[in-house]
Amino acid sequence: MQLEIENFADQFQYFPGTRYMGSKNKIIPDIWQHLSKLDFESVYDAFAGSNVVGYFLKCQGKKVITNDFLSFSQTFSKAIIENSFVKLDKSDIKSLLKKNKNNGFISETFRDIFFSEEENEFLDRVRKNISQLDNEYKTSLALAALVRACMKKRSRGIFTFVGERYNDGRADMKKLLEQHFLESIEIFNQAVFENGQENISLNERTEKQNVKADLVYFDPPYFTPKSDNDYLRRYHFVEGLVRNWEGITIQEHSIVKKFASYKSPFAKKETTYTAFENLFHKFQNSIIVISYSSNSFPAKDELTAMLSKYKSKVVVHEIDHTYSFGNQNHKIGNKNNRVKEYLFIGL
Ligand SMILES: C[S@@+](CC[C@H](N)C(=O)[O-])C[C@H]1O[C@@H](n2cnc3c(N)ncnc32)[C@H](O)[C@@H]1O
Does residue 341 have its Cβ closer than 6 Å to ligand 1? Predict the structure, then answer.
């Protein structure tokens, strides 16, 4: 069967945006301006986060392999990058909302922490119904929609504080969780498309992976001594929700009921340097692209030197960008103190 040639790039407008920390959503056109000049068919997005970069490149017809050690990030990539055809239909939605007997885990554990009692009951009910779906892509779509609903309903999209601190009265805060969920299902359904490639979604530690791709894109947590870059601390609730808190030990002393962070070499200065070295060594035969910022370590010159050990040509582009609040690494509103966003390319 001949694949109908469409303009996949138009599909990008359907990407389900979230306020994911460090998301490249706003600067993806600037990144593409540089990547479009490079010759590659396949790409490995090794720290996928919101998956905006992988999804954008899927829309450019590339074969995308995406990875993040957070399971909730992987539900997004399974739902809209690896998945080419499956959508949630009316009867799926009906079965997702149906009443059931469940263990009430969320209502009990997270009472008076993030959501109202009715919302917690809704989450317990839907989470159980999701477990009964029998297709992995339907499961990912439903989980991704539930995660997006929870993030939308939280100010700043994060789970580090009790209640509604910073509630700015946005429409998103007023909407019921169920309404966010139903809207998110529509949004995720629309994002499903086929680009003629076999795209793959992974959920491992990048440092343990062996992946082959023409181009590798590294956007790890930016290390700065002044602030933590721990994603799990901010998103533990949606990570637990996706994993159904199975095999997870909640830290009982924690007011927000979080659990221990996953180990990442990007959490400390020394291990950040070694992690970059190892990645460059492992992927020296691919085009290496890195996003990093001017207030992080390794510094621009150091990273350039490290990359030059493996690559004959290294170019560094500066991208004009100020992250919005919630992105702790970046000072806002002070132009003199503006953090620069870099794109390193090793050819
Ligand atoms: C800066 S964010 C990526 C943002 C992404 N490019 C986007 O546009 O949304 C870094 C990501 O790396 C992930 N991460 C951190 N350490 C990791 C590791 N050792 N292996 C895999 N993923 C890791 C985090 O979970 C986080 O999603």
Answer: no
For 3-57, the DSSP string reads: PPP--GGGGGGG------TT--GGGHHHHHHHHTTS--SEEEETT-TT-HHHHHH
Is the pLDDT at 2 greater than 50? The verdict is no
Listed by start position, the domains of the chain span: 8-346
Q: Which residue has the tokens 């009265």?
A: 169
Over residues 95-140, the pLDDT tens digits come to: 999 999 999 999 999 999 999 999 999 999 999 999 999 999 999 9
Neighbours of 269 (CB within 10 A): 13
Between β-strands 215-218 and 287-293, what pairing exists: parallel, antiparallel or unpaired? parallel
What gap in Å lies between CA 15 and CA 228, rounded to an integer? 28
Tell me how far apart the alpha carbons of residues 174 and 188 are, in angstroms, rounded to a whole number: 21
Q: Is 296 in the pocket of ligand 1 (CB under 6 A)?
A: no
Cis amide linkage into residue 29, ω under 30° from 0: no
Centroid of ligand 1 to alpha carbon of 345 (angstroms): 19
Encode pLDDT of 195-229 as tens digits. Answer: 999 999 999 999 999 999 999 999 999 999 988 99
In CATH, 8-346 is 3.20.20.70: no
Pocket test for ligand 1, best of 35, 65, 68 (most atoms within 8 A of CB): 68
- Which ligand 1 atom is the nearest neighbour of the CA of 53? 8
